[in-house]
Amino acid sequence: MTLRRTLLFDEHARSSAKLVDFGGFEMPLSYPDGTIAEHLACRRAAAVFDVSHLGTVRVEGEGAFDRLQAMLSNDLRKIGPGRAQYTHLLNESGGVLDDIIVWWVSPGRFDVMPNASNTERVLERLGGTDVTDTRAVLAVQGPTAREVVARVSPEAAAVGRFHVATFTFEGEECLVAGTGYTGEDGLECAVGEEGAVALWRALVEAGAKPAGLGARDTLRLEAGLPLHGHELGPDINPLEAGLGWVVGWEKDHFAGREALASIRAAGGPSRRLVGLLTEGRRPPREGDRVLEADGGAIGAVTSGNFSPVLERGIALGFVPAATMQGAPLRIELRGGAVPARVVRPPFFRLDLDGADT
Asked: In the chain, N or C terminus with fewer CB closer than 10 Å?
């Protein structure tokens, strides 16, 4: 299979990035300084990520609002033009076919942002036009992200959290949203073919450290954010994942509503997604069994890694819904089980003395 390339591919190759297949795209996993350095740059200052592999399905015109409202789990009536919303596309059993950010650009235009491997599925369900290849999306994230962006475009830096606005860069109209996937403040800029490379270079020159998908994954895990195919999927519903707030219960209908209503009426799901903190540096991995402190398996890790901030192993995983915060458990790693406890993400804000567990 021939891998697709984003508009910034040559920049990544020029910077000696380690390139990998991700969602059918040839994407940077890391740059020469390595994933941990990129991760810490985002936590302490600012990093810039090429996230152009994410899809953009443009739904516009008469009936666009009604079509999205009937299919997606969240309620667009909570927001309006110039805002962004996190939402789910569900199957009829309530499982998550994809988790999505909707950019409501103008009254009759919505840019729906699916995960890379799910763009065709979302396009088939929602209709619209796939415009993924016409733009690059640059995510600038970190405590100094807005300061960095302001050196390039003050109007882009001024966008509010989960707001959407236009800005002009080198004569080209671009979009910016106050969204991201790291747990830090930040922005995501959609720019066309003419300005993509110039904007990337300008942001790097302004102080954003280039970061790859490796750091993006460790950052989202430290923030306790779900990844489709791990914490979300066709057999995982938003109630199990602790994301009931993306369910627009006041809507009369959307795909999967009846199934979720039945689960809620029955007292809720039988399992729930939790954060797990190990006592050592060894990282849990997807599929590792979660064990009771003195007993057998009660669940499994869905994502696990080493936390550069905590210098501990961290994980997300499903356990019985009755499992209490702070409960002592074990995770079965290769070479033996290690002690772990249930904690409340985001991991990178935890007090390791126990105040935030």
From this structure: N
pLDDT of residue 355: 46
Q: Name the residue type at position 297.
A: A
Q: Using alpha carbons, select from 121, 267, 101 the residue that is nearest to residue 190.
A: 101
Q: Which of 347, 319, 139, 92 minimizes the C-alpha distance to 224?
A: 347
Mean pLDDT, all residues of the chain: 96
CA–CA separation, 309 vs 193, rounded Å? Answer: 36
Please report where in the chains the tokens 């954010």 appear, as a residue.
225
The contacts of residue 309 (CB under 8 Å, 6+ apart) are 40, 43, 222, 347, 348
pTM for the structure as a whole:
0.96
Token pair in block for residue 151:
């050196």
Helices (H), 144-299: 145-152, 154-157, 196-205, 213-222, 257-265
| 8 A C-beta contact, residue 312 and residue 277 | yes
- Classify domain 9-55+132-222 at the CATH superfamily level: Probable tRNA modification gtpase trme; domain 1 (3.30.1360.120)
Write down the pLDDT at residue 356: 54
List, in order, residues 6 or more apart from 294 with CB less than 8 Å away. Answer: none
DSSP state of 310: T
CB of 199 within 8 A of CB of 148? no
